Predict the structure.
Amino acid sequence: MPILFLRSFHLFFMMRRRLNLKEKYSIGGHPENDPIMLPSQNHLQGFFDEEGLSGPGTFGLTPELAVRAGSAIGSLGAGTIGIACDGSRTSRVLSQAFAAGIQGAGVSVMDFDHVFEAMFHFGMRLNALSMGIYLTGEPPRARILGECGLPASRQIEQEIERRLIQREFYQAHPRKFGIAMDLSGISSLYVTELIRMAPEGLEGMSANVHSENPAAEYILSDTLYRMGCEEGGSLHLEVSPDGTQLSISQDGLFFCPKRTIAAYGWTLFERSEDLAVDYDFPRVLDHLAESRGCHILRYQNASSGGQDEAGRKLAAHQWTKDGSMLAVVLLSYLHRHKMTLAELDRQIPALAVKEAQISLTMPPARILSQLKGQEAGEGVLLQDNSRGTVLVRPQKNRNALRLFAEAANFEIAQELCTDVIQKVQDLMGRL
């Protein structure tokens, strides 16, 4: 009898231990097959990168992780959450998985189906959503967005990471699951807003629209045609695949996305309005704004505090991250003032930007503390009065720094980058 009791107690103890392991590490899986849930601080560096939530490991963002991430996001208490994808098979599956996790936490979702990202930002703005998720398929990524499509703050990302590591999710009663609202018809409202940007129409103008995204190309070209802008001529509008950037060219003159935003800023300064841009944007525009009695407000793409709140609030009501809206606004400005692109170009100071990245053998904070410059968000702004400036900031979740050098021309910007890279390498050799 005592032997039978001991064997029963041992069996009970082993079963309880196995159940506890499952509860601590995984959802319905063995801990050795689920590295995502291991309670190691190193995994905090694996969930988010510069492009959003990608997940650690070989496969990155999987449907299983997407369900858990959705549960974590639904547990934040942010209210209804917007969700959209780029239309690829992978992104559609991930979108469904995220929605399941969110709804399981008792939170409703507004499902915009497959739209380009700029249109999703517009949908979030129109519906006053404070949080959204945009899924891409190649590679699998989830961009966690805040108000009006701006990048979510670093605090939000860290809270999602914490809940994923600790498995701290809210599970609603089945009768209290969230609902899914179909907003797949957002494109018609987007077109209406585009037309509203040029109330006087664009009669007599002509332009050619290009984009690697057929939907973005069709919507802008069709809308311009409706407003009286014919297809053809020497003006070319290039919208990025995600719809967030615009490049313009005409007769050898080229506006890169940053110069296009600078041109948009000029249209605002003429109305005595300020412009909001991210911290990486060239500082040369600040002087133009000041000359017109206006200001440039900056915000961080992954804000770690409230110091950039004014910039984020203003950015939520401007079009710096929507290539189609920028195109209509600028064409309307040229049409209204009877200006050419070359004449608009003369109003904007020259700017050349060179971006670079350098891997480190130590935490970025150690290097940044040794660089003598002006604090700028999470980084440091180095000034060379005779040549230009270099913004140095840490790359998210990596021992690396990103450099943004700006000068009067590309060659000088390249030299500035090279000088700072050499300075960083010297510091690593001494520290």
